[in-house]
Amino acid sequence: MVKPYLLSKDKPLSLIQEFEEKLAQYTQAPYAIMTDCCTHALELCLRYEQIKTTEFTAYTYISIPMLMHKLDIKYSYIDEQWDGEYNFYGTKIWDSARLFKPGMYRKGQMQCLSFGRSKPLDINGGGAILLDDEEAYNIILKQRYDGRDLTIYPWEKQVLFNVGYHYRPTIEQAEDALFKLSYGIFDEGSQNASYPDLQKINIIA
């Protein structure tokens, strides 16, 4: 696994990396990237894949169509119930917000997890991306943290930045997630979705 962190000089980041490595091991994903929330995890994947159009279940959280408007992605709803995760059709991206079990990673895909309130691994916030594409991993890892190259310390020595976003989780979130994952304090398996039909909701752009 790629280890792009300077653990000796930026020690707090080691907690995030340790959780990512344990999460990757648990889900059997080659790589895991922790984010501040699932919606931002999805955004980073959609941006990387340059998605222009998709369709997905009408029974999801309101942040998802909001995200489509933000990224100017054309979308349509499907009258589809789901359990644990659902796919953005025409892409390899999954909203896996309510799924958490050993070996859950789907080869060749990008699965986005939520650690928000009532989710299987509940730390009241945070998310993650599971993937196996090394190039995508290295790019999204930097985007997640303001375009920073974590092999450069201090960050002011970095002179070339690609556009990034302030979507890094807090150290406290990583510490809590690492503790709960290490000691099995979570609900293993999948959860039924419980969301309203977004086809009945209007969004004013």
Overall tally of structural domains: 1
Strand content: 15-25%
How would you name the oligomeric state of the polypeptide chains in this document? single chain
Strand order of the largest sheet: 1-8-7-5-4
Brief rundown of the structure:
With about 200 residues, this protein is α/β, with parallel strands linked by helices. It is built from 5 helices and 9 strands, in the order αβαβαββββββααβ. It has one domain (about 15-200): Type I PLP-dependent aspartate aminotransferase-like (Major domain) (Aspartate Aminotransferase, domain 2, 3-Layer(aba) Sandwich).
Structure description:
- There is one protein chain.
- By secondary structure, the protein is of the alpha/beta class.
- The chain has one domain: Aspartate Aminotransferase, domain 2, CATH 3.40.640.
- It is built from 5 helices and 9 strands; from the N terminus they run H-E-H-E-H-E-E-E-E-E-E-H-H-E.
- The protein has helices at residues 13-27, 38-49, 63-70, 134-144, 171-182, and strands at residues 31-35, 53-57, 74-78, 86-87, 93-95, 99-100, 110-114, 127-131, 189-190.
- The strands form 3 sheets. A 5-stranded mixed β-sheet has the order 1-8-7-5-4. Strands 2-3 form a two-stranded parallel sheet. A two-stranded antiparallel sheet has the order 6-9.
- Strand 4 (86-87) and strand 5 (93-95) form a beta hairpin.
- Helix 1 (13-27) packs parallel to helix 5 and helix 2 crosses helix 4.
- The chain is globular.
- It starts with 12 loop residues before the first helix and ends in a 15-residue tail after the last strand.
